[in-house]
Amino acid sequence: MSKDAAGLAGLLATTGVLHFLAPKPFDGIVPRSLPGSPRTWTYLSGVAELAVAAAVAHPRTRRAGGLAAAALFVAVFPANVKMAADWRHASPAKRAVAFGRLPLQAPLIAWALRVAR
User: Fold this and answer.
1) CB–CB of 34/25 below 8 Å?
2) Among 28, 42, 90, 107, which has the highest number of CB atoms less than 10 A from its own CB?
3) Burial of 33 by CB count in 10 Å (0-12 exposed, 13-18 middle, 19+ buried)?
4) Would you list the domain boundaries of the chain?
5) Which PANTHER family does the entry link to (predicted)?
């Protein structure tokens, strides 16, 4: 497995597991426009991240996994926007984290597309 694929699979798996071990921070960034409980969306996104990590890790599904990872990074962007909006009056450190996540999506998407190739 390439370093790119291993790193992406590791990032997705780690984040996916965190959705179950420490769901509360993820609950807080679920957009209010989504129906149902934020916890349900936290768990669903955790499952999605774990499934995509597994797809990226396996050579036969790596292309599809990379494309799915790119789509996942696009899909979670509204949560990052919500976090930035919610934390706009927080401490400078929290604001830096929240606003720093927004432009980080572009290199994550590029990384996933690179793995898909």
Assistant:
1) no
2) 42
3) exposed
4) 3-116
5) DOXX FAMILY MEMBRANE PROTEIN, MEMBRANE PROTEIN-RELATED
pTM for the full model?
Answer: 0.91
- Residues with Cβ within 8 Å of residue 115, at least 6 apart in sequence: 2, 4, 5, 8, 56, 62, 65, 66, 69
* Residue 29 to residue 84: CA distance in whole angstroms: 9
Tell which phi-psi region holds residue 91, choosing left (phi > 0), alpha (psi between -120 and 50) or beta: beta
Cβ neighbours around 77 below 10 Å, total: 16
Tell me the two tokens of residue 78.
């509204």
Per-residue pLDDT of the chain (117 residues; tens, 9 = 90+): 899 999 999 999 999 999 999 999 999 999 999 999 999 999 999 999 999 999 999 999 999 999 999 999 999 999 999 999 999 999 999 999 999 989 999 999 999 999 999
Alpha-carbon distances, residue 76 vs 3, 42, 82, 102, 109 (angstroms) = 24, 11, 10, 10, 11
